[in-house]
Amino acid sequence: MTQVRGSSADRVRAALSDLGFEFQVQELAHSTRTALEAAQACRCYVGQIVKSLVFKGSVSQRPILAIVSGANRVDEKKLGALVGECVEKANADYVRDQTGFAIGGVAPVGLAHTMDILIDEDLLQYDCIWAAAGTPHAVFRVTPSDLVKMTAGQVVRLK
């Protein structure tokens, strides 16, 4: 792994620093676009991979970021109940517009717009987890408690 430089990765690095965290953003030789690819590249369990999934309210169209363990799928009905309206998975253009990142590289920090953030409780079982850092090849290692602090997300059951 090497340290990565580039606009999206630099934005994540700056956001982490602004929040008081000094995690190293690392570039991997292999893609981290899927949880399985990321786990293989980071040499960890799939459950330790942070999936940043963007949904939108079906009526309000407001963005919702679900930060999910790589081993889990989001129960959209449960997510909708938590945010107070039905939700739908966002398309690539909406994701880029709301987060500033392309699908496969959505970081939990450095988001283009403010949004509700819900964190999968299953991530808290690990000592460390790996989150995307703005590109499909960039990641940073973080503790679950620091992820909660840096995102101010609400820890919930999402599966």
Would you write up a description of this structure?
The chain is of the alpha/beta class. It has one domain (2-156): Alpha-Beta Complex (YbaK protein). It is 28% helix and 25% strand. The protein contains five helices and nine strands; from the N terminus they run βαβαββαβαβββαβ. Strands 1, 2, 3, 4, 5, 6, 7, 8 and 9 form a nine-stranded mixed sheet that branches. It is globular. The N and C termini lie far apart (32 Å).
In short:
With 159 residues, the chain is an alpha/beta fold.
Largest sheet: 9 strands, mixed
How many domains? The number is 1
What would you give as the CATH superfamily?
YbaK/aminoacyl-tRNA synthetase-associated domain
User: Which whole number gives the mean pLDDT?
Assistant: 93
Strand residue percentage: 25-35%
- The amount of helix comes to 25-40%
Tally of helical runs: 5
Show unreliable segments: none
Q: Write down how many β-strands occur, each being a DSSP E stretch of 2 or more residues.
A: 9
Question: Radius of gyration from the CA trace?
Answer: 14 Å
Gross morphology: globular
Task: Please tag this protein with its features.
about 160 residues, alpha/beta, YbaK protein, 9 strands, about 30% helix, about 25% strand
Task: List strands and helices in order, with pairings.
Layout: E1 2-3, H1 7-18, E2 26-27, H2 35-42, E3 49-57, E4 63-69, H3 76-83, E5 87-89, H4 92-99, E6 116-120, E7 129-132, E8 138-142, H5 144-151, E9 154-156
Parallel strand pairs: 3-7, 4-6, 6-9
Antiparallel strand pairs: 1-2, 2-8, 3-4, 3-5, 7-8
